[in-house]
Structures are given as structure tokens and as C-alpha cells.
Amino acid sequence: MKRRTLLAAGGGALLAGCASWPGSAPARGTGDLGVVVARATGQLAVVDTTERRILGTIDGLGDLSHASVVYARDGAHAFVFGRDGAMSQVHLPSRRVLARLMQAGNSIGGAISQDGTLVAAQNYAPGGVRVFDARTLAPIADIPATYTAADGSQQRSRVVGLADLPGRRFVFSLFDADQVWVADLSDAAQPKITKFEGIGRQPYDALLTPDGRHYLAGLFGEDGLAMIDFWSPQPRARRILAGYGRGQQPLPVYKMPHLRGWAVAGRHAWLPAIGRHELLVVDTATWEEVGRVPVAGQPVFVMARPDGRQVWVNFAVPDYHKVQVVDTVSRQVVRTLEPGKAVLHMEFTPRGEAVWISSRDANHVSVIDTARFDTLARLPVEQPSGIFFTSRAARIGL
Predict the structure, then answer these.
(1) Residue 57's beta-bridge partner residues?
(2) What is the pTM of this model?
(3) What angle do CA 113, 90, 41 make, to 5 degrees?
(4) For labelling alongside 355, which of 17, 199, 204, 369 has CA 20 to 30 A away?
């Protein structure tokens, strides 16, 4: 009788846990699931990374150009941020849209808090960050990112580089205001904002190191990056790699590079150089440049394989059909691949034995073995762009 009572109590707690999220409980594990954005059709293709196949689609998501995705802690629910300002909550196992709201006029991405209770959207129009309850999508906070422009007027800045910091905090960069802000939502009713001003001209994107310690904002308006050490008793922004292109004429920039914690391999960060056909290698202990690697074109994504042994790079036009692989020990390009025209994104499987690559103009996603560089599968997706696997749910800054 006692054992039966315990089982009944345990079953009740389990059911209560399942019922706490909208949507049905997953019928299978979610660790090898992911989504590919089909920007032409406003869909997500739900994929299985073990069987390397498309399980189905999630429809009705609006304008998905430059769309991005973050995952809830269960890996079953995800939040999709569309360029049209919509934020959608989807359920991968059932392939359904659970909720969708227009939270802005032009959105550029989002983040989810460390405890999984808050989801934040970074916006271009109107500028600022909006924070919502991750279960209900009820609005929690509106942070307008207001600054004083050169003419003395009050303006709202476009926001980029949003990431979750340990604690119920978000860090983000103000492109128009040359600032980095931290929003502490420990008391969600009264967010506490910390501002770092004068960090450098036009921060275009940022990365948070996988340990949540260092935040790096890439600068479009000048050579260099701004870095903040959040383990410091008094965090402050300082410039690193200032003038890395000194004495050289910068090349035209056809596409803005993207930064995230995936650029860190071991103790080194691998960063795209603005206006250069180079990768910058930076020691994360000293934040000094320790090397450069010439590559085929203007780098856009520079992504480390999960074990850090390789870095994969794609490029802006006219080299956007190429992907190069750099060995991080020898710092040499060891392979150049051409998986299809207009490579837009790459995503490694959780342990890095394969990488998935979207080729927009070829209308397919390639799955490539990272040891032998063989193509393991090629999946048809109409104008694929971003690829997001559920393993991101367990990582800081993604």
C-alpha cells in the first residue's frame, strides 16, 4: 500500500510537470532534433540529426528572413523571432505553433534567461528589448534603449548582440548609441539597467563566452572590439584588437559578420576581421592577438567544432558558395568545400561528428562528415537559412 501511494504521488507530480507547458508532452526525446528555417515559405523544417531526415514542417510563421530561434530548457519548445517583429512559440514534437504575437515592427533575434522563465526579443523598430514570460508570452518588461543623439534629441537605438547572462540578466549592444547595457530582471517588475557608454563606434553583433564571463561586441565603425569581464568586481568596457587593420585599405563589406560563443575553441577566440579576408586569433587569457589566418573571402560565420579542433568559415559574396575548414593546431586551411550556392549558415551536431550547411540558392541542406568531409546526406529545403539544434538549450549565450 505504501509503495502504491508513492507511485501515485510521483505520477501526479510528473503529470503536473507536463501540464505546466502548453502543448502535449513529447512522444520521444528531443536531444537530436532541430529546425531549419525555410525563409521562402515561412516554415520551419523539423529535422532528426541521428537519422538525417526531415520529420515535417511547422507552417504559418510569417517573414522568416534573418529569423533566429532559441530553445526552452526542455528542448521541445522553441521561440522563433521573425524579421516582421513576430515572436512565435512552437512545439517541435507535435510540429505546432502554440502562440504568436507581433511584439515589434522589425526584430533581429532573441534570448532566453538562464532559468528558462524569461524570453527577450531585440528589436530594430522600435529600438529596444522586450521581455516576456516564457510560458504564457505575457509581457514582463519593455526596455526602449533610449539615448541622446548628436542633435540633442531622444532616440531609440537598434539593438544587437542580445545574450543571456547568469542570473535573470540580459546583455545587449546599442548600435546607434555606442553602448552596452545589462538588464537585471531579478525583480521583473523593476528591471535594473547598467549602462556601459562610449564602448566604440557601431557595435554590430556580440558574443558571450561559453562560461558566461566575457562579452565581446564587434565594432563596425572602427577596427577593434569592446570587451567586458563580468567576473570582475567592477566590470567595465575596454577596447581590444584596436586598429587591427592599421596601414591597410579595408575591403568593401558585403555582409555583416555574425558573432556568438561558437567562435571560442579552447583558450582561443576565432573572430572575423571586418573588411579583411582574414580570421583573427585571440588568446582569451590576455585578449591579445596571437595570429591571423588568410581565408578565401570576407568571413561571415566563424564557428568552432564542439571539440575545438576545427573552425569552419563561410563567406559573403562573391565567395558565398565556399566553406573553408581551418585546423586550430596548425592554423592552416585544410579543406575548401563548395556545398551549394549562397551558404547562409552552419550548425554542428552536439558532439561535432557532422555539420549541417544551408545553401539558399541551391535549395538544400548538406550534412557533412567533419572528419572525412564526405557528404552524408542532402535534404531539400526551399531557400534554407538558419539551422538551430536543440543542444543549444543547454548552452549559455545561445
Answers:
(1) 45
(2) 0.89
(3) 120
(4) 204
